Amino acid sequence: MNYTIITSQCKGPKYPPKKCCSAFKEFACPYADQLNDFRNDCATTMFSYINLYGKYPPGLFANSCQEKGGLKCPGQK
């Protein structure tokens, strides 16, 4: 996977939530159905790789971009 969309826009030390969450959604939304399916480990694996490649603080996206009921994306029911 190409994590550049996130790593190029979400930069520390302040990690602006608006930019970080926008980049995260652009990356993750094509996979929203799989990421919101708690019967697999897609979300856990994705966050592990995002943190590995971006060296982000633990929980950055989970805490800053949290939405009730899972990832909400444009055009998603």
In angstroms, what separates the terminal alpha carbons?
A: 25 Å
Classify the beta-strand content into a percent band. Answer: under 5%
Count the DSSP helices. Answer: 5
Mean pLDDT: 89
Number of domains: 1
Flag low-confidence runs. Answer: none
Largest sheet: none
Structural class: mainly alpha
Shape summary = globular
SSE ordering? HHHHH
- Radius of gyration in whole Å, from Cα? 12 Å
What's the number of extended β-strand segments? 0
Helical content (DSSP H or I, runs of 4+):
40-55%
Features:
77 residues, 52% helix, single chain, 5 helices, GPI-anchored protein LLG1-like domain-containing protein, LLG1-like, mainly alpha
Protein model, in words:
The structure is a single chain. This protein is mainly alpha-helical. The protein has one domain (about 5-65). Helices cover about 50% and strands about 0% of the residues. The chain has 5 helices and no strands. It has helices spanning about 5-10, 15-30, 30-35, 40-55, 60-65. It is globular, with a radius of gyration of 12 Å. The protein starts with a helix and ends in a 13-residue tail after the last helix. The model has no long low-confidence stretch (mean pLDDT about 90).
Architecture blueprint of SSEs:
Blueprint: H1 4-9, H2 17-28, H3 32-35, H4 42-54, H5 60-64
Give a short synopsis of this structure.
The protein is mainly alpha-helical and 77 residues long.
